[in-house]
Amino acid sequence: MAQILDPLPPEQSGKILCCYVNATSKIQVARISNIPNWYFERVVFPGQRLVFEAPVEAQLEIHTGMMASAILSDKIPCDRLALNEPNSYELESSEQPSDSINKKTIAQPINTRTEDTTKPLTIAGFVSVD
């Protein structure tokens, strides 16, 4: 996904496609500040995936939202967030989507057993009637 609002400076030649996921329950601000003549800052909501293009040498700063402020909670080199785009053979042959960097399965099977999820509600010795 190209950055339409904030294109990379023309002097930046090597760019990579990156992905960051906010795995926390707090709002975060993702910022790249070590690239001259380029402004990149995005709000990342809990569970949201941020896909962006950045120079190879960029560092993504993660600022985690606190009450009326934010703290710098992490600095991640963008080359560690790089996505490898799968070729058509990998897409056809894989049964489940996988993380092409770490080769771990991303999608987990869905629990379809209802006996584990539907139990009567008991409150202080009383049983609810369905």
Estimated radius of gyration = 21 Å
The beta-strand count equals 8
Envelope shape: elongated
Spatial strand sequence of the major β-sheet: 3-2-5-6
Biggest β-sheet description: 4 strands, antiparallel
- Write the element-wise H/E pattern from the N-terminal end onward: EEEEEEHEE
The N- and C-terminal alpha carbons lie at a distance of 49 Å
Question: Low-confidence stretches at least 5 residues in length (pLDDT < 50)?
Answer: none
Average pLDDT level: 75
Helix-strand category: mainly beta
What do you see in this structure?
With 130 residues, the chain is mostly beta strands. Helices cover 5% and strands 35% of the residues. It contains 1 helix and 8 strands. A 4-stranded antiparallel beta sheet has the order 3-2-5-6, with no helix packed on it. Strands 1-4 form a two-stranded antiparallel ribbon. The protein is elongated and about 70 Å long. The model has no long low-confidence stretch (mean pLDDT 75).
What's the structural blueprint in terms of helices and strands?
Layout: E1 15-21, E2 28-32, E3 40-44, E4 49-55, E5 59-66, E6 69-77, H1 88-93, E7 122-123, E8 126-127
Antiparallel strand pairs: 1-4, 2-3, 2-5, 5-6, 7-8
